[in-house]
Amino acid sequence: MCFHAARIETRIEGGELVPLGEQDRSRWDRELIEQGLGFLGRAAAGEVPSAFHFEAAIAALHCRARSVEETDWAQVARLYESLFALRPSPVVALSRAIAFGMAFGARRGLEELEAIAQRDKLAAYPFYAAAFGELHSRLGEREKAAERFQEAQRLARSAAEEQFFARRAAAAAAFS
Q1: In a domain, 57, yes or no
Q2: Helix spans in the chain (H)
C-alpha cells in the first residue's frame, strides 16, 4: 500500500486520470517508497511467498524505475506469472498480458490478451478494451486502437475514465 499511496497525488490531476507513463515521478513520495521497500524486505524473509508479496514486488519495481522505459518489464512479467500461479484471475491475466506486451513487444501482448481463458469476465471491464487499444496503437494500427478506446469509453465507470478513454480514442483517430 505504501507504493500505491506514494504516487496517489500524481494519478489524478484536474479530475483527469494520468497513466503511469505520464505521471511526474519526481512528485512521488520517496519516504513512502522507502517505507514500502523496508516492509517488503521484512516480509520477504519468510519461506512461502503470498500474492501480496508478488503484488508488492511489482509495485516496488514501478516505484524504483526512473521512467516507464527503465522499468524492468521482463521481471514484472515474471512476477505476474508467479502471481497468476497463486491467484489465477482474469484481472491478473490482463496485467500479465500488459507486462508481456511491454517486455516482449506489442504483438506478444496482443497474443497474451487473446489467450486469456476467462475473457468473458473482462467484457465489461474498460481497461481490457483499453489494453487492446494501447497495444494496437503501439503497432501503428490506429483504426483498431481508436475502436478499442471507444469501446473502453462506452464501458467507463466514471466521468474521469470516460474522458481519459475519449482522449485516447481521439488521439488514435487523429492518426488514422
Answers
A1: yes
A2: 2-6, 8-11, 30-43, 51-64, 73-86, 90-104, 106-114, 126-138, 142-155, 159-174
Query: What is the residue range of 18's domain?
Result: 1-66
Residue 117 has what DSSP assignment? Answer: T
Give the CA angle between residues 116, 117, 123 to the nearest 5°: 70
Q: How far apart, in whole angstroms, are the C-alpha atoms of residue 77 and residue 95?
A: 9
How many residues would you count in the chain?
176
pLDDT in tens, the chain (176 residues): 999 999 999 999 888 899 999 999 999 999 999 999 999 999 888 788 899 999 999 999 999 999 999 999 999 999 999 999 999 999 999 999 999 999 999 999 999 999 999 999 999 999 999 999 999 999 999 999 999 999 999 999 999 999 999 999 999 988 65
Cβ atoms of 52 and 29 closer than 8 Å: no
The DSSP call for residue 12 is E
In a domain, 88, yes or no: no
Residue 42 lies in a domain: yes
Contact 46, 13 (CB under 8 A): no
pTM for this predicted structure? 0.91
